[in-house]
Design goal:
single chain, alpha/beta, FAD/NAD(P)-binding domain, Flavocytochrome C3, Chain A, domain 1, 2 domains, seven-stranded mixed β-sheet, four-stranded antiparallel β-sheet, 13 helices, 18 strands, globular
């Protein structure tokens, strides 16, 4: 297959880019591929909303910029923060023009919420399913574009570069180029090649490397792993954000139900097992401190009391307002026997967001030519050491727009590479036992959760590295001799991402933002990114 533009991922980042390109270039072919159904993305599970300065009478760009810089703990690129905050409003307005419905009051004004780390109310939302509303809007707009082909259940194996046509590629090789991708078509069970002029990675996050995460099962860090294998640049992988308040359900592992930060923005209070409101011990902003601070505070309270969770108390809130703003949270809690009006909600931190990823410039370009990356898989230097709540959807739209602008400038000067060989699967056999893969996935999640979680130290990181070496060795042997499957490829990608997280954590000899190492408690005055 040949396509002018190839988009990998169907969340807000990929769909925004595809829609803009298709509208601007009606004579070009845009292909979107996704490994699950078209709406199964991290975007879909975003509850809280999208941050934007929509009311200049009560808010300002400078306040939003300052809040982002404070949350990022000294590692944000101020230029990037400024352009995202200022350009973000236009992108939000654009989304509204496409049909997104955000909550309004009786006077027709947008209801703006407040979340941790924000000095003002600036979060637009659609009840507690904002991401789902945005995904719906974009998918409906995509369907109207006849030059967009959306292929679901298609698993990307690798980015095609000069390596695949016989050249030796290293990280120091200048001008590595992307020619497309190899994919496993889950319908036909065949490995195919898709040749493209420009490729955009919008593959989302990597929360599934941890035992408990708010991310869906597809979030296995595929894009980051593929770029690393292709000798592209990755940075700041040590900064994994744990959302403070995922719903705790005894015995439940994998994807946890998110209790959005907006609940605390509306007045929810965190309490320990003794019923004490504990956040005032850790930060003057109490329950609305940035996520890194709140997650560590909850982790510490759980260790002090020997429990697996704390409570989020909403009993004092206006219940009619709560049910209207958070209908899905209310119903989910009821389904496990928690009536929010009389019971406190059991919550615990869960892996939520990767602040690092594929290194990009201010136009979404990666270190590999003709390859762009936007959304959670990218590291734009907006988030620094800790993401400010509800800045992620904003970032995705801004950099997808910027990638679109650059793509328009380049597309007519790029030709298809006609020399790409077919995938070579000679000598491989069907896997004999899937337990070799599933057990390795369990081991990976366990070691990352126990050794590379909210609180780390040098010995834990060293142990994680040693165990990852063994998992990597076993998995590569399996990969070389057996036919590829989504499960095997996801395991391979997750091991790569886990290695990048651990290696980056070892390189950072300080505690900063989301990276808290008890052997390096004092922040360094030297601020730099960890680039691998």
């Amino acid at each position: 297959m040949k396509t002018d533009f190839l988009v990998i991922g169907s969340g807000i980042a990929g769909l925004t880019y595809a829609l803009k390109v298709a509208t601007e270039c009606p004579d070009k072919i845009i292909t979107i591929i996704t490994k699950a159904s078209s709406d199964e993305t991290n975007t879909k599970y975003a509850q809280g909303g999208i941050a934007g300065v929509m009311n200049l009478d009560a808010d300002s760009f400078s306040k939003h910029i300052e809040d982002t810089l404070i949350a990022g703990d000294g590692l944000c690129n101020k230029k990037i923060v400024e352009l995202v905050v200022k350009e973000g409003v236009d992108r939000i307005e654009e989304l509204i023009e496409w049909g997104a419905q955000f909550d309004k009051n009786e006077e027709g004004e947008y209801i703006l919420g407040k979340e941790g780390g924000h000095s003002e109310s600036r979060i637009l939302h659609h009840k507690d399913v904002t991401g789902e509303e945005m995904e719906r809007t974009l998918l409906e707009a995509i369907k109207k574009c006849s030059n967009i082909h959306l292929i679901s259940h298609c698993f990307v194996l690798d980015i095609i570069t000069q390596h695949h046509v016989g050249y030796l590629i290293t990280k120091s090789t200048p001008d590595i180029e992307c020619y497309g991708v190899y994919v496993l078509n889950l319908h036909t069970k065949k490995i195919e090649k898709i040749i493209s002029k420009i490729t955009l990675l919008a593959t989302g996050g990597n929360g599934q490397v941890y035992r408990t995460t708010t991310n869906p099962s597809i979030a296995t860090g595929d894009g980051i792993a593929m770029v690393y294998r292709a000798k592209g640049r990755i940075e700041n992988m040590e900064f994994i954000q744990f959302h403070p308040t995922a719903l705790f359900e005894a015995g439940v592992r994998g994807q946890s139900f998110l209790i959005t930060e907006a609940v605390r923005g509306d007045g929810g209070i965190l309490r320990n097992q003794l019923g004490e409101a504990f956040m005032e011990k850790y930060d003057e902003r109490k329950d609305l401190a940035p996520r890194d601070i709140v997650a560590r505070a909850i982790d510490n309270e759980m260790k002090i009391n020997g429990t697996e969770f704390v409570y989020l108390d909403c009993r004092h809130l206006n219940m009619e307002k709560f049910k209207n703003h958070f209908p899905n949270i209310y119903q989910k809690c009821l389904s496990i026997g928690v009536d929010v009006s009389v019971d406190m909600i059991p919550v615990a931190p869960a892996a939520h967001y990767s602040c690092g990823g594929i290194k990009t410039d201010e136009w979404g370009k990666t270190s590999i030519k003709n390859l762009f990356a936007t959304g959670e898989c990218a590291s734009t230097e907006l988030h620094g050491a800790n993401r400010l709540a509800s800045n992620s959807l904003l970032e995705a739209m801004v950099f997808s727009h910027r990638s679109f602008i650059t793509s328009m400038q380049q597309i007519d000067s790029i030709s298809f590479n006609e020399e790409i060989p077919d995938w070579n699967a000679a000598g491989t056999i069907a896997p004999k036992e899937m337990i070799l893969i599933t057990q390795s996935i369990k081991e990976l999640k366990l070691l990352m959760s126990d050794y590379v979680g909210i609180v780390r130290n040098n010995e834990r990181l060293h142990r994680a590295n040693r165990r990852l070496d063994l998992l990597h060795e076993e998995t590569e042997l399996l990969y070389q001799k057996t036919e590829v499957s989504p499960q095997l490829c996801e395991l391979r990608n997750m091991i790569t991402v886990a290695y990048l997280i651990v290696k980056s954590a070892e390189l950072r000899k300080e505690s900063r933002g989301l990276h808290y190492n008890t052997d390096h408690q004092i922040k360094s005055t030297i601020l730099q990114n960890t680039i691998l």
